[in-house]
């Protein structure tokens, strides 16, 4: 863990604050690549992940931008209450959403606060001279963090703004945008869960190969499956042979924790990948949005915070 203090708090857009973090002694922080995030340990005990929203111009600082979500479970409200001088603990940067190629064209599509991991991507692509388009979808300029700077920035010619509440702009034509970039292009999309899902479904309909589709969810889409449809199963620990019953209203990670088996957990929604565990035997019932469709089909990994088992026993490599 890294001890940091809040160096600055800036209102970037309607309900969006940018938080600048640094060590108290102003020593350098670990470097990171575009798409990375950090875990922030809040004073209440909550742990939340936020994308680093700008490449480091100064290696003493990290920057995150956070939307105050009315449906928040507490994390974004607490971040918005932070003041200059407040102390926090953070993790080193981790990256589950990296740029995979600078040689092929990149299509960046952001919905609202989903702009945060895509900004460092655009910076990296621009600095390398790579080909890319950046589509930014929001309600209005007032709701679009960093839009004023992006309109006049070093890659302003790559920017396309789509404001649903501005008649002269309007919503992005997703089909048209994806159709124009179908051949040998990497798609990176981030934003609200339903926004990401809509873009990915359209891309698959148009024939985009899954290997070209990259996404990062901040929250999970609403699940149709309810707790009453869950069935009990046994989770088995491969290294020890221990076996524990997972009830209808329990998760694998909860049962492991209750029985003293440590497994790191953060989002509890199958979004972040923190609790990803290898499957030795059994068939997972995937409830996450982190793994790809191919990884779901292979059944070699499971998100213990939300997924279940289709077989009576699921053996994990723990």
From TrEMBL:
Q: Name one GO molecular function term.
A: oxidoreductase activity
Question: Which residues are in the 2Fe-2S ferredoxin-type domain?
Answer: 231-318
Q: Which segments constitute the FAD-binding FR-type domain?
A: 1-100
Going by the UniProt record, its keywords in alphabetical order are:
2Fe-2S, Flavoprotein, Iron, Iron-sulfur, Metal-binding, Methyltransferase, Oxidoreductase, Transferase
* InterPro entries cross-referenced by the UniProt entry: 2Fe-2S_ferredoxin-like_sf (IPR036010), 2Fe-2S_ferredoxin-type (IPR001041), 2Fe2S_fd_BS (IPR006058), Beta-grasp_dom_sf (IPR012675), FAD-bd_FR_type (IPR017927), FNR_nucleotide-bd (IPR039261), MRET (IPR050415), OxRdtase_FAD/NAD-bd (IPR001433)
Determine if Glycoprotein is one of this entry's keywords: no
Q: Which PANTHER family match?
A: CARNITINE MONOOXYGENASE REDUCTASE SUBUNIT, NADH OXIDOREDUCTASE HCR
Where along the sequence do coiled-coil regions lie?
none
Q: What name is this protein filed under?
A: Vanillate O-demethylase ferredoxin subunit
- Tell me any Pfam family this protein matches: Fer2
Read off the PROSITE patterns from this record.
Answer: 2FE2S_FER_1, 2FE2S_FER_2, FAD_FR
Q: Which GO terms describe its biological process?
A: methylation
> Would you indicate the residue range of the signal peptide?
none
